UniProtKB/TrEMBL annotation:
Residues 26-113 form the GST N-terminal domain. This is Disulfide-bond oxidoreductase. PROSITE patterns: GST_CTER, GST_NTER. Gene3D superfamilies: 1.20.1050.10, Glutaredoxin (3.40.30.10). Residues 116-241 form the GST C-terminal domain. Belongs to the GST superfamily. It comes from the Eukaryota.
């Protein structure tokens, strides 16, 4: 019995030493718009999980995403990316793609992803739905409505209609629940938050996406925005000026 206690204390002690000596996770993200709708996923997950992290600015308006040092971490030249100095086997792990980062952080800590196998895959399907559907479609709508130098009505219609359909799918999935899957916050909520939050906050989108058409999404956004970790991850409001 005593030897078991000594043994488990030793493990605990060794673990604490490692946690104390390990460097914070490096997060590479945008220096504006609270990391943007993709970068904010990593910041929120790190905040929710209480992991120590250090933020590094990658300003895509200055093409910093193409710097050779950053490309070693994120070969697709996009944020967010992280480097965990205490990755699997105690080795350094660089990671890009927000979905992979969310799954990794959830598995590293055993939080934000259900241990129940059915619920786990339901959560993952909504994470993949976000990175393969909601993100790219709202991203294209964003480009043609807000940024495109030429007016392209066909593209505006195509992407805003598809984005509206996807927000409708999300609204139906949330229903009268507080979260996308189950009764607790998961990486599925963190994945979709940024794009939804950005869209409904931006006056330029009001003509295309009416808040009243997505009441469950609005209630869900309000619930998430009340959480301290979400507040900490977005110190400024989008589109403040
Ligand atoms: N599928 C990627 C998308 C990331 C993404 O599009 N990031 C944008 C900022 S929101 C970026 O870094 N763009 C720089 C570029 O395309 O050169 C993810 O989910 O991480």
């Amino acid at each position: 019995m005593l030897s078991r206690i000594i043994k488990s204390n030793k493990i605990l002690f060794t673990k604490n030493i490692r946690t104390m000596s390990s460097k914070p996770i490096d997060l590479y993200t945008l220096p504006f718009y609270n990391g943007g709708p993709n970068g904010i996923k990593a910041s929120i997950a790190l905040e929710e999980l209480g992991l120590e992290y250090k933020t590094h600015s990658i300003d895509i308006s200055k093409n910093e995403q193409f710097a050779p040092e950053f490309l070693k971490i994120s070969p697709n030249n996009k944020i967010p990316a992280i480097v965990d100095h205490d990755g699997p086997g105690g080795k350094e792990l660089p990671l890009f793609e927000s979905g992979a980062i969310l799954v990794y952080l959830a598995e590293k800590t055993g939080k934000l992803l259900s241990q129940d196998p059915v619920e786990k895959y339901q959560i993952l399907q909504w994470v993949f739905w976000q990175v393969g559907g909601l993100g790219p479609m709202v991203g294209q709508a964003n480009h043609f409505v807000v940024y495109a130098k030429e007016d392209v009505p066909y593209a505006k219609k195509r992407y805003t209609e598809e984005a509206s359909r996807l927000f409708g799918v999300l609204d139906k999935q949330i229903g009268d629940k507080n979260f996308i899957v189950g009764n607790e916050l998961t990486i599925a909520d963190i994945a979709s938050f940024g794009w939804a939050h950005m869209t409904f906050l931006n006056p330029k989108y009001q003509e295309y996406f009416k808040k009243a058409d997505y009441p469950n999404v609005q209630r869900w956004l309000n619930t998430l925005n009340e959480r301290p970790a979400f507040k900490k991850a977005q110190p400024n409001e989008y589109f403040k000026n």
